[in-house]
From TrEMBL, chains A, B:
Ranges for domain HTH hxlR-type: 11-109
Alphabetic keyword roster: DNA-binding, Transcription, Transcription regulation
Pfam family, one: HxlR
Organism: Xanthocytophaga agilis
Protein name (database record): Helix-turn-helix domain-containing protein
Lineage, top ranks: Bacteria, Pseudomonadati, Bacteroidota, Cytophagia, Cytophagales
DNA sequence: CGGCATCCTACCCGATACTG
DNA sequence: CAGTATCGGGTAGGATGCCG
């Protein structure tokens, strides 16, 4: 496979989608947003993800320089995640993607409510 | 799983990433761009993809209303793919994603050269 | 030419249990 | 609290071959 018509692995779009194209990563980024968020908060809000997967995704996002993991050597332990500038730069792009999807599929519900649920103390009962 | 903290499947960002987050779809969209492109051309340019996968991705993109498949009942058969407006609307977003990646990883090479290779008759020998 | 059918592999994702 | 370790299923992606 010598003369690839394009260098797949060096295409920025491919790289970006590789870093972000997983099932949960965009959501994680959007949920963290401009806050410092503890692992437990993420796990509580995104309780559809297993903790292992959440950990995995967070680690990969950290490796890709999209977020920062701060570990406090306390008891009980505390870990806070926050976006890097690189991660923050994604938010407007994700917004566009949301708009794009919503434009062509008005059934979608926005994720912002989720983020609110994070930053508000409330939430739990649904009906 | 009653009270999901957010409706995963109705989050527009999730939907968008589901429709686009695969390994090749963004590339396909960017390669087709504003042209009508035949299957063979796509397969030739993106010869790192197996034809089966290429077909699969094209079908899914068609199902998601991102591109259109036109089949000409000729001999030899001819099939042309082109983006819908929904697909075209993605291009600027992908551009932003490219810029984002390139900004934080200048090693990336742009895909535009690829597209050129499609729309120019030339190309083949690399060295 | 532009597929589809078949088979196979890798890995993403998840459940569960255990640890500092 | 915030993980790791282990096991395993489902599916995206790929190689190959046949067909209208």
């Amino acid at each position: 496979m010598n003369r690839e018509k394009f260098a797949y692995s060096s295409c920025p779009l491919v790289k970006a989608m590789t870093a972000l194209g997983s099932k949960w990563k965009p959501i994680i980024v959007c949920v963290i947003r401009d806050k410092k968020v503890r692992f437990g908060q993420l796990a509580a809000i995104m309780d559809v993800i297993s903790r292992k997967v959440l950990t995995d995704q967070l680690r990969e996002l950290e490796a890709d320089g999209i977020l920062i993991r701060e570990e406090f050597k306390e008891l009980p332990p505390r870990v806070e995640y926050s976006l890097t500038q690189k991660g923050l730069d994604l938010l407007p792009i994700f917004s566009l993607l949301e708009e794009w999807e919503t434009k062509y599929d008005p059934q979608s519900e926005v994720i912002h409510s989720v983020v609110h649920s994070l930053h508000e103390p409330v939430l739990t009962e649904k009906d």
